[in-house]
Specification:
Growth Hormone, Chain: A; single chain; mainly alpha; globular; 16 helices
Length: about 425
Amino acid sequence: MTDHKIFDQQLERRSINRWIIATAGIVMQVALGSVYAWSVFRIPLTRTYGWSISQVTLTFEVAILVLGFSSFAGGLWMKRIGPRSMAVIGGLCYGLGVILAGQARGHLGLLYLSFGVLGGFGLGLCYIIPVATLIKWFPDKRGMMTGLAVAGFGAGALVTAPVAERLIPSVGLPATFGILGSAYLVAILCSAFLMKNPPEGFQPPGRQPALRAGTQGNGRDLALGEALRTWQWYALWAMLFLNTIAGISIISQAAPMSQEIARTSAATAAGLVGIISIANAAGRFLWAWVSDFLGRARVFQVMFLAQAVVFVLLSLVHNFGMLAILLFIVLLCYGGGFGTMPAFAADFFGPRNVGSVYGLMLTAWGFAALCGPTLIAHVRQSTGHYTQALDVIAGIMLVSAILPFVIRPPRSRNAEPGDAAPTQPNPALNPIR
């Protein structure tokens, strides 16, 4: 047997193994995505310990803010110690953070430190791992696989919420946090042992390596410092921030919006939260998969324009069915931003350092988690209705559509006129014409 055939067989085995790694990454993200089920604990915590709604909600906001910054730290450390060790550290932090949250027992500061800070830190360390790892294993399906990975995060609440709702009345809050935290810890640690980077220069069978038009025009992966010296990194950060503001505003107000706008019952409003959770998960895969064919920039422009229209319509509807459809579209786009942006960053700056490059970009998520809910809540409180807040967000989405229209891949500052160019252009990199 020739060396060429032996090499092809090795690549085929690695191709099969990469799907096992992908499955482990999705399981890890489902465990992490349980943070989106925090609203299940809101009423039990307020009734049991007498905390206000805003005090309990702040726990979630702290966790997401810390997640954004620890994702950057995780991206840097993962480069030194590898995805497996990083996943173990992150899993321990998140699992223990949830377990310790059950021991707060009326101490609000302990709740913030355990679930918010420690848990959020673990979330950020682990969140970036499947994204950065699968981008390297699937250069031929970059958008689809990052979409699948983060779709697991969006689906986490669908798995956790019904389990938590049954556990709380039967075993109480402390035990519920302990059981769930232990389950998250086991799921993440088991997935961690399958996390590894592919061999240097790995390409799946049948795929020829090609230069990337997004790595300064010469196929070179950019380090974080080099990426930060391009205006494109800040443009991508802004796009993720703006898209997240719209969706997270709805996540924070979906139930009361349903009761106020469509005059629904509390039970129906809770059902709406489940519906939009499905949209959040589905959008992460759907838009990322579409971006492999349509292009990342065009996908973001479609999402921004669609949301501009939807938020205008939201201020006009009074029917629950139409309200649910419109909010479903918003959450599809919210999830789509997280599904598409990792591949967008890898297209522009290369996959080697995407852990740190995209990890720092996730600070946009943390800032949006503070700005979006605050904006819609402030306008609602000052005006007595949601109309003006929805119109403001519609305007933000309309202006945001300019960014994906003007963005272009960064060019090499040191490339010579005779440098080679990609022989087959990647549609995901094509600017909007």
